[in-house]
Amino acid sequence: MAELLRVKRLDERLLALRERAKAGRDPTATDETLECLLEHIEREPPARILEIGAGEGLTSCALLLFSAAELTAIEADPLRAARARENFERFGLSERAVLYEGDAGEILPLLGGEYGLIFLDGPKAQYRRYLPDLKRLLRRGGVLFSDDVLLFGWGSGAAPIPSKRRMLAAHIQEYLRLLQADPELSTEILPIGEGLAVSTRL
Ligand SMILES: C[S@@+](CC[C@H](N)C(=O)[O-])C[C@H]1O[C@@H](n2cnc3c(N)ncnc32)[C@H](O)[C@@H]1O
């Protein structure tokens, strides 16, 4: 496992909130995934970041604490969105963060401008539907990180898919196929967390 050099440097209060959130139903990004995001923004600092499925804003906060970027977050669950706002406030980040509360499928088409980093961590079955907007919003040279694309080995076909989850697995497999076949994207799939697709806009 890669060393978590950057994650370990984060504010202790944020690390404590992450530990609590990791045990929740829709857990926050794993340490390895967050380390990968932080390593990327250290190397190529983005001016604007977009996170889809921001949860309680813990990954958003880490990305903002690690950069001077402005961030747009989308979260559908009102309680989580309220916690995300509290967390932006708690870490003094509210001025650089805008949170849209609602369905990403409705909000994404309304967003404009370009983002240097997009972290896609919302409803897995919707990733394919979001892709045209994500590409429109990703600047050239920018990177789209799509989380959980190998979901329990189903995405790659490495593990048998329970019958109830076949539809979800098919959505993810199709999303991966679209990413890899897209001539405007160069995609690498990292076996960290539940699989992280890293797609650079050419
Ligand atoms: C895995 S959690 C996000 C964790 C967060 N990215 C982090 O790293 O801390 C997925 C989130 O997507 C949100 N979500 C689910 N469906 C959504 C939708 N249609 N639009 C926006 N957010 C959605 C869930 O409420 C949940 O908070």
Strand order of the largest sheet: 3-2-1-4-5-7-6
- What is the general shape? globular
**CATH architectural group:** 3-Layer(aba) Sandwich
| CATH fold annotation | Rossmann fold
The tally of strands reads 7
User: Which small molecules are bound?
Assistant: S-adenosylmethionine
Quote the average pLDDT: 94
Q: Which parts are unreliable, with pLDDT below 50 for 5 consecutive residues or more?
A: none
User: What is the count of DSSP helices, taking H or I runs of 4+ residues?
Assistant: 8
Quick one: biggest sheet?
A: 7 strands, mixed
> What's the helical proportion of residues?
25-40%
Task: Tell me the span between the first and last alpha carbons.
Answer: 29 Å
Please report which band the strand proportion falls in: under 5%, 5-15%, 15-25%, 25-35%, 35-45% or over 45%.
15-25%
- Identify the CATH class: Alpha Beta
Give the full name of the CATH homologous superfamily. Answer: Vaccinia Virus protein VP39
User: How many whole angstroms does the radius of gyration measure?
Assistant: 16 Å
The run of helices and strands is HHHEHEHEHEHEHEE
**How many domains make up the 3D coordinates?**
1
Structural class: alpha/beta
